[in-house]
Amino acid sequence: MPDCGQNIGESAGGTVMPLLELQSVTMSFGGFKAINDLSLKFERKPVYGIIGPNGAGKTTLFNVLSGFYRPKRGRLLFNGQDMTRLRAEQFARQGIVRSFQITSIFPNLSVMDNVVLSVQRRADGGTKAFAKIDWHEDHRPEASALLDQVGIPSSLRGRPAGDLPYGRKRALELAISLGAHPTILLLDEPTAGMTTADVSRTTDLIAQLSVDRMIIVVEHNLGVIANVADEIIVLQQGALLTRGRYADVRQDPRVIEAYLGKRH
Ligand SMILES: Nc1ncnc2c1ncn2[C@@H]1O[C@H](COP(=O)(O)OP(=O)(O)OP(=O)(O)O)[C@@H](O)[C@H]1O
Predict the structure, then answer these.
(1) ipTM beyond cut 0.85
(2) Atom 2 (ligand 1): residue with closest C-alpha?
(3) Fewer CB near the terminus (10 Å): N or C of the chain?
(4) Model pTM greater than 0.80?
(5) How far is CA 76 from CA 24, 44, 101, 181, 213, in A?
(6) What domains are defined for the chain?
């Protein structure tokens, strides 16, 4: 392969290519535009937070970014590659992985085997999701390390995943996602429904995980966003209202109005 002297993420012209880019994306439901002609660039920052009032289009955007929705109009580029027509599992194989859908946990499998399965799936290129347990042995060390990383103690790892308390289930979901070796990790309301202690643990974990990968978080809890996000993207009515550091965004009168209404 010829060496063109080009770094990953750098275009031929020397300008830095966004890791992820939306170009004029519209996502409609029965004629209603939940996302309307939205263009966004995600550079290589560690943590982006997506916020906005109810109905702003956060979940829809999240579903587009993770390949769960395919927009009718516009394009989604990952490292310059057009992802628009790909499916969610192809996104995951390329390195865009979403977490915090407890539905992806197999409740009857042990906590450890859930993570082993994820590591296995990645190692096999996503082709043998329901493999026999005996070839899991090779993947136990990595699975153990991932469970260490998300703070699930050894005493819980042999238990059926379905028996874990809520906060631990979400940590397990994160370990499962990390087994896919994401370049971009998408977190959908990572602290929803958590106790204060779990919120604090999850916030620390997001910061720790962001050292090695980009994280995009959709979150209602602005305290969490303030703590973890390097840049905030504010949506309103399916469009970009503004973006920037939390300290600046929270003082923006348009953002205050969007959240609280004109009277405030
Ligand atoms: N599957 C769907 N079918 C019809 N309308 C939808 C669908 N999904 C979202 N919408 C509409 O699109 C708009 C944006 O919804 P979305 O869930 O993306 O907003 P959100 O910012 O995540 O809101 P919330 O903060 O309330 O979760 C809303 O008006 C919603 O009713």
Answers:
(1) yes
(2) 29
(3) N
(4) yes
(5) 9, 16, 22, 21, 19
(6) 15-89+217-264 (3.40.50.300)
